[in-house]
Amino acid sequence: MTYSSSLLYRKGIISLLFLIYFGVLYSQNDNLFNKSFTELEEGFKNSKTAKPLAIRYAETYLQKAKKTNDTVKIVNGYTFFTDIYISPLVREGIDYCDSIIQLTKNLKDNDKFQAIGFRQKGRYYYRYGEYKLALDNYIMAMEHSKDDPMKYETTNFDIGLIKNNINEREEARPIFKRYINFLESYHDNKPIKKNLALFALADNYNYTNELDSAALLIDKGIKSSLAINDNHTYKYFVISSGINSVFKEQYIMARDSLLKSDSLLVANYDQTSRAIGRFYLGKTYLALNDQKKALYYLKSVDSILQETNDVTPELLEAYNILINHYKTKKDSENHIYYITALLKFDSILNTNYRYVAKKMIKNYDVKNLITEKNREIVKLNEEKSDSKKTILILFSCLIFLSLPVSYTHLTLPTKRIV
Questions:
Q1: Are 100 and 79 in contact (CB under 8 A)?
Q2: In 10 A of CB 106, how many CB atoms?
Q3: Rg (CA), the chain
Q4: Cα(88)–Cα(390) distance, rounded to whole angstroms?
């Protein structure tokens, strides 16, 4: 076989493989289109860990919804895509959130959909470290979910996470405890949501130096997440365990947990959590006198932050360590670089903190208190109403029971004692 005929043969084989591949793909898509909306939704939920398949289910669902011009179904399709693009984080997901908000803006009884759109949008901005925009959208979501306790409490929990991240941990703690209590009393068990709330509370205890309380919650959370194959939350308990060990100065245990969580977070695309884990790995290696590895992990924190701009208070310490290191080494170039980076992220953190703290006081805290007050008034009125009904029923029973007694007393002759 000549070279040219061999090349043509190979091109023919490749073309045939492409035709087979796209034929199978088209056939699969055609088969999906014949499924009902319920079947497509179930397929999407069951394939969330397999992104390409989840996208095909979501695309098919949305195409069918648009073909039937069913607004509710179209919104469901958009919601699927907001779930897909939040991990790994893709800004296109925000466009789908905006589509949900715009499409349902003028619908009657639109609170459910508006709450979904604003909360999902808030989650995106939270992941990007844009807490100002996250808070604005969370507040709007809460405005539209006053009649839906699960959505309302979950969004309130989301705001608690922002408070926790900007070091308002004492204010965040009761929000986390309230959410755990709510989930425990909720009729539909939500173990994954509860695991996330346990992690948040454990993280809160870690940073307020209540390490034994944190360790108990971490142990409980690890067991719970393993029991239900909750891999998503499991890695957060592992990183929390590592941080707990750092604070206890148990550096070998800390290193093992943090290395494990770092490998788990790669696939999760959670860069901020990875940056935090790597910061504590850097501190751990410094304590173990391994400066080379310590510098590697501390410098990787900067690499992540330059990409995400999502800075938390403790991460600034990485820059202080690097600045002092390069100052000692008389390395002016790196010394200036890390000073510049520190100033940049300190400014971002301060801007986030000032805006969020001010917005919390002006909007969220006040509105939340008003909502709580109104709920308590409704609850109290219901209790009073129930009490009145109970008293009325008891009074009616007493009257009813007293009637035959009085009648007997009046009509029967008195029995003589012989």
A1: yes
A2: 7
A3: 30
A4: 56
Contacts of 154 (CB under 8 A, 6+ apart): 119, 179, 193
pLDDT of residue 27: 46
Cβ atoms of residues 244 and 256 within 8 Å: no
pLDDT at position 183 is: 94
Give the pLDDT confidence score for residue 114 in this predicted structure. Answer: 96
> Is 274 in contact with 265 (CB distance < 8 Å)?
yes
Task: Please classify residue 382 by burial: count the beta carbons closer than 10 Å to its beta carbon, then call 0-12 exposed, 13-18 middle and 19+ buried.
Answer: exposed
3-state secondary structure of 59: helix
276: β partners:
none
Cα–Cα distance for residue pair 357/168, rounded to 1 Å? 9
Show the low-confidence residues of the chain (pLDDT under 50).
3-5, 7-9, 11, 14-27, 400-401, 403-418
Cα→Cα distances 321→232, 255, 279, 301, Å: 31, 19, 10, 12
d(CA 74, CA 253): 49
Within 104-210, residue ranges assigned H as helices are 111-127, 131-143, 149-165, 169-185, 191-207
The DSSP result for 346-384, as a single string, is HHHHHHHHHHHHHHIIIIIHHHHHHHHHHHHHHHHHHHH
Task: Give 15: exposed, middle or buried? Use CB within 10 Å, 0-12, 13-18, 19+.
Answer: exposed
Q: Which residue has the tokens 């707990």?
A: 244
Q: Can you give the pLDDT at residue 3?
A: 42
Structure tokens at 298: 């501390």
For the beta carbon of residue 195, count every other beta carbon within 10 angstroms: 24
SS3 400: helix
Contact 160, 172 (CB under 8 A): yes
pTM of structure: 0.79
Residue 376: predicted pLDDT: 53
Rounded to whole angstroms, the Cα distance separating 387 from 282 reads 62
